[in-house]
Design goal:
The protein is an alpha+beta fold and 279 residues long. It has one domain: Deoxyribonuclease I, Chain A (4-Layer Sandwich), CATH 3.60.10. Helices cover 26% and strands 27% of the residues. It has 8 helices and 14 strands. A 6-stranded mixed β-sheet has the order 3-4-2-1-14-13. A 6-stranded mixed β-sheet has the order 5-6-7-8-12-9. The radius of gyration is 18 Å and the shape is globular.
Length: 279
């Protein structure tokens, strides 16, 4: 949309919906669609969903004109209400690309989902190298790479008991400086972490969707849990979902917010992240 000064206000949401919204925690699709509608993004980056008639129906209802996904349970998808000039997908790197037409210029948007296993740093780095090389070929003035990076930001370890639960579940060890190389590589490539640019709070985006009592590993003290509806659940424990912008786009960032409402906590094991730019 356009504001009074005739500048384009562009809103992007990235959201990992967990196994197409139905695989765990019951059928969560209505909750997910309601959250997306509430944020009303111009572009939606979705992970682990989009390869389903349900989401194309949602796209029609909410006014998305363009939808593209990579088939498969854990793949990314991309939705746009704005005109799209080019589309590209890459199943190996797990990204979907839209070149969004903003009139005087184009914006390249990538929805990405990197390898989930915490020790798989090499696979995540290799995927990002391929993506960055392909991104340079497109030559967009404004570039946004958003999604589930399955990586922490350096210096942001997360809640210790939650990270330990993740390590136990994945049968691995996560040290204080592990699980950060993907976000390190984004910073080295000159990209700006939009959430951190606008916030000093933790911004933890990942939490197990199951009851706190059913977690693997050592029992979790009740004072570490939160009550959502009739359940005690683990709170968000680590930040692994990001909106990265190149410097030209980051200069136009006005806000970047994490939705940690009760509705969001019940909709998926990831929380939606919403970034707004004035171009």
């Amino acid at each position: 949309m356009t504001d009074r000064n005739h500048r384009i206000v562009f809103k992007l949401t990235t959201f990992n919906i967990l196994r197409d919204g139905i695989g765990e925690g019951g059928d969560r699709r209505k909750r997910i669609a309601a959250l997306i509608s509430r944020h009303n993004p111009d572009v939606l980056c979705m992970q682990e969903g989009g390869d389903d008639a349900c989401w194309r129906g949602m796209a029609d209802e909410q006014g998305f004109k363009y939808v593209q996904n990579i088939p498969g349970e854990f793949q990314p998808a991309l939705f746009s209400k704005l005109p799209v000039k080019q589309v590209a997908t890459h199943s190996g790197v797990k990204f979907v690309y839209f070149q969004v037409d903003l009139g005087r210029f184009t914006l390249g948007v990538y929805s990405i989902h990197l390898m989930h296993w915490p020790p798989a740093e090499g696979e995540r780095i290799a995927a990002l190298r391929k993506l960055l090389a392909l991104m340079q070929v497109q030559g967009d003035a404004f570039v946004c790479i958003a999604g589930d990076f399955n990586s922490r930001a350096r210096g942001e370890q997360g809640l210790a008991f939650g990270v330990q639960c993740i390590a136990t579940f994945n049968k691995c060890v996560i040290g204080p400086y592990d699980w950060t190389r993907a976000t390190d590589s984004m910073a080295m490539a000159g990209f700006i972490d939009c959430y951190r640019r606008k916030n000093q709070t933790s911004g933890y985006s990942l939490h197990p969707l199951t009851d706190g009592a059913s977690q693997q590993g050592a029992p979790i003290p009740k004072d570490h849990l939160i009550r959502i509806g009739d359940r005690l659940m683990m709170p968000p424990v680590v930040r692994i979902d990001y909106v990265f912008a190149n410097p030209a786009l980051a200069e136009r960032l006005t806000q970047c917010e994490l939705d940690d409402s009760d509705e969001a906590l019940q909709a998926s094991d990831h929380l939606p992240l919403v970034a707004t730019f004035k171009l």
